[in-house]
Amino acid sequence: MSQAISNTTAVTLEEAKNLIATCGADVTIMLQGGMGIGKSSLLWALAEQFNGTHDAVYMDMTTKDIADLSGVPYVEERNGIKVTHFAPNSELKLHNKKPVILMLDEFGKAMRPVQNTALRLMLERKMGEDALPAGSIVFGTTNKTGEGLGDNIQPHARNRLSFVTVKSPDAEQWCAWAVDNGVEAEVIAWVNQNPQALASFDDGGQDENPYIFHPNKPMTAFCTPRSLTKASHIIKHRGVLGTTATIAGVAGCVGEAAARDMMAYAALADKLPTWAEIVKHPDTAKLPADGDAAASFITVYSALARVDKGSFDAWMVYCKRMAKEFQAVFCLNAVKSQARTAALANRSFTTWATENHWLFDAK
Fold first, then answer.
1. C-alpha triplet 192, 182, 326: angle, nearest 5°
2. CB–CB of 143/34 below 8 Å?
3. CA distance 224 to 178
4. pLDDT tens digits for 242-287?
5. Cα atoms found within 13 Å of the Cα of residue 181, Cβ hemisphere only
6. Does the pLDDT value for residue 9 go beyond 50?
């Protein structure tokens, strides 16, 4: 039986997080989506949102056996009769007596007996004699059936859950996240210019896309939000690694085609002025060549990740020397990124925004 759900009902990661936070104490949300899009990271985002009131509990269901959920038996005597109880897994953190946010990761790949053992936990928040503390949230993750990764959940189990399809972030969404999460500017700029790197094989028209996973093609590496972030860590150290090792490492994350293209951006970035040079000499530091969109995007995304209150004036001097469209790219993204506070406190920025308010109104 197909387990696919119409894309018209799919939600973003942020919408999925809000759904779990709001309803997860009463309904187990099972998130179904492509590999590497950030489903598992929602556990930590939820823990941050609840600000210490809940313990975060991660359970990799591919490694679990029945005893991990049903508990380990121990015997005690009651009224002269020996009876068996089951001690809950300490991984569940019930001993802390706090509500938990429990993520059953890769649930569709768990052994059938393990899935069956988890059913009462997902429906009633109970395991044998033990109940999760009041207010506890349970949710799970699984991959798309079409990816061919072995995910399978029986109808009687699905009926205890709310199955929700999660959309992969598009290039704009991922780039906004990447700016605030330490991804190298070269990688962000490459994705911005190659949005097909975050397409899905089931989007249609993707048969010749060399960057993404295709279930019917032999592939050892491909682009996902997760693998792009891994590639960024390697590109960051290219000066130490050298070209050959860097390309090999990046290809091991995102595939050969993406690695070669991405390294061209890295080589371009190495010819641009450093952030220190821009801040020290904003009125004379070298600008990207006219018409070189890649270099301009790298410069802008690098600034978004680095600019702060102390460097904002200097950056705005430099930025205003760039083509107007890239001034707009910076300013429109600044108000959505970690640079927002510094931007709104900077007179040069607010003046630019006022003079170009139509850009913000259009958004």
1. 40
2. yes
3. 13
4. 999 999 999 999 999 999 999 999 999 999 999 999 999 999 999 9
5. 16
6. yes
36: Cβ–Cβ under 8 A, 6 or more apart, which residues?
224, 225, 226, 227
Question: Any idea where the domains of the chain sit in the sequence?
Answer: 7-165, 171-362
CA-CA distance, 56 to 52, in Å (whole number)?
Answer: 9
CA distances from 198 to 172, 216, 304, 333 (A): 10, 18, 21, 20
Pairing of the two strands 72-78 and 81-87: antiparallel
Instruction: Tell me how far apart the alpha carbons of residues 58 and 234 are, in angstroms, rounded to a whole number.
Output: 27
Model confidence, pTM:
0.85
pLDDT at 341 over 70: yes
Cα Dmax for the chain: 89
Q: For the residues of 222-264, what is the DSSP string, one character each?
A: ---HHHHHHHHHHHHTHHHH-HHHHHHHHHHHH-HHHHHHHHH
Confidence check: pLDDT of 2 > 50: no
Note the pLDDT tens digit of each residue in 169-194: 999 999 999 999 999 999 999 999 99
Give every CB contact of residue 34 below 8 A, 6+ residues apart in sequence.
143, 144, 147, 168, 200, 213, 224
Q: Is 240 exposed, middle or buried, given 0-12, 13-18 or 19+ CB atoms closer than 10 A?
A: exposed
Amino acid residing at 35: M
Span 214-240, average pLDDT: 93
Q: What is the pLDDT of residue 362?
A: 55
CATH architecture of 7-165: 3-Layer(aba) Sandwich (3.40)
DSSP string for 297-312: HHHHHHHHHH--TTTH
Backbone region of residue 332 per phi and psi (left: phi > 0; alpha: psi in -120 to 50; beta: other values): alpha
Kindly state the helix (H) or strand (E) to which residue 131 belongs, with its residue range.
strand 130-131
Q: Computed over its alpha carbons, how large is the radius of gyration of the chain?
A: 25
